[in-house]
Amino acid sequence: MGKLRFALVGCGNIAKKHVHVIKNYLDNAELRCFCDISLEKAQKFADDFQLDAFSDIQTMMESVGDEIDVISILTPSGMHYQNVAELVKYGKPLIVEKPIALQLQEADEILRICDENNVKIFVVHQNRY
Questions:
Q1: How far is CA 76 from the centre of its chain?
Q2: Residue 87 bridge partners (DSSP)
Q3: What is the structure's pLDDT at 125?
Q4: pLDDT (tens digit per residue) in 28-57
Q5: Cβ neighbours of 117 (radius 10 Å)
Q6: Better pLDDT: 40 or 127
Q7: Which helix (H) or strand (E) holds 109?
Q8: CA-based nearest residue to 88, from 19, 9, 4, 2
Q9: What is the mean pLDDT of the chain?
Q10: How buried is 7 (Cβ within 10 angstroms: 0-12 exposed, 13-18 middle, 19+ buried)?
Q11: 29-57 in b/e burial notation, b at 16+ Cβ within 10 A?
Q12: What per-residue confidence (pLDDT) applies to 45?
C-alpha cells in the first residue's frame, strides 16, 4: 500500500500542527488537499505544498475524493457534528479534533452514523498527556 493521503478540513491554527506531524513524523502519510470556508486560508496552506485548495467539502470530494484516504476535521468545535454528517457518506476514516461534539446528543449521533456507514472515527487530543 502507498502512502495515506490526507485531506485537512479547516485551516486555522491547529491545522499547522497536523501539517507538521504529517510532513515530519509520518513516513507513510502525505497531504493531498486543504479545505476551509475561507478559500484564502485553504489556498495559503495549499500553495506551500503545491496542492489543491477548496472552500466546500462537496466540491473537494467530487474533485479529489478518490485520491483521499483519511479526512482530518480541524474546524471549530461547534462545526464537528455538521462536518462528520456531511463527510460520513464518503466512507473515509475521519480524524476529529477534540471535542467530538458540543452536545452529548450530537456525539451519540456521530457515533451512530459512523457505525451505520462503517466509518472509523478517531478524536485527537494531541496537546494533552
A1: 12
A2: none
A3: 78
A4: 999 999 999 999 999 999 999 999 999 999
A5: 12
A6: 40
A7: helix 104-116
A8: 9
A9: 95
A10: buried
A11: bbbbbbbbeebebbbebbeeeebbbbeeb
A12: 97
